[in-house]
Amino acid sequence: MEKGLTYSEAIEKAGNKLCRFPLKSVRGVPLMEPIAQKWDSVWAFCPDPSDLLIATYPKAGTTWTQEIVDLLLHNGDAEACKRAPTVVRIPFLEIYSPPPIPSGLDLLNAMSPPRVIKTHLPIQLVPEGFWENKCKVIYVARNAKDNMVSYYHFDRMNMTQPEPGPWEGYIHKFMKGELGWGSWYDHVKGYWEERERRNILYLFYEDMKENPRREVERIMRYLDLSLSDDVIERIVELTSFKVMKDNPMANYTFIPKPVFDHSISPFMRKGEVGDWVNYFSPTQLQLFDEDYERQMKTVNIPFRTKI
């Protein structure tokens, strides 16, 4: 980032270099073109063993988990966690944008370990250094139907992702894995199958909604932390959807309108389980359920579409 520029100002300055970037295949996974062009640098990234990776399919509770982790590491200090926007506090490993917007690697290289790092990469594209150095990894999975609805609205308002088109066509793109970061099915299965061998804490969005305190405590134990009950309660409150939606350091309102158009759909839209029932027609639901059964038949991941 250019000296003296905030992240928002860097985006403003990049101006007309930003557009709806096409997807390009990297080892069979569609990624936004700027990421694909810089892939060798991403793949070469070598984390410190003390670094923590938060991995998700897009719109599966990433920002929520980032905020929980940051608050846990800062003993529930809300002001400390407003020191910078989410993207600066917890850099997005693979993201590349036109200068002067800093890439994820630029931000990471300017930080000293231990760092918390975000990725949407499927497990086979995570740089090998994370496994070689036995970094801790938190993975969050969200049921396919709600995840798809949330991603659809995000693609509508994010002016750097491909045009989503109409909902009825988006369902087919999702089922075929023709969206940024590829197949939801391959993504959730890949981390699930490796979770024990690679010491991955595998969380479910629905569990986090149902009992946030329990899941905050799970994350705390995984990070080898021990916080008092009142601090944990504070973290649960500070990471509630209502509080985060009003937190300018976490709600992505710091991204200017030419990139994230919140008038189309807010970044933090509903944060609910079961909103999918408002979108699927009976025909779409039957088609999707049959395809889901086929794609998930080799695993038994306990997803829930309502709580």
UniProtKB/TrEMBL annotation:
**What terms describe the molecular function in GO for this protein?**
sulfotransferase activity
Which domain of life does this protein belong to? Eukaryota
Keywords linked to the UniProt accession: Catecholamine metabolism, Cytoplasm, Transferase
- Start and end residues of each Sulfotransferase domain: 49-298
Q: What is the E.C. number?
A: 2.8.2.-
Residues crossing the lipid bilayer are: none
Location in the cell reads: Cytoplasm
What InterPro entries does the annotation carry? P-loop_NTPase (IPR027417), Sulfotransferase_dom (IPR000863)
Q: Name one Pfam family in it.
A: Sulfotransfer_1
> What's an example GO cellular component term for this entry?
cytoplasm
Swiss-Prot/TrEMBL GO biological process terms: catecholamine metabolic process; xenobiotic metabolic process
The family database entries (PANTHER family) matched by this protein are listed as:
SULFOTRANSFERASE SULT
As for family, the record states: Belongs to the sulfotransferase 1 family.
What's the protein called, per UniProt? Sulfotransferase
Taxonomic source organism = Megalops atlanticus
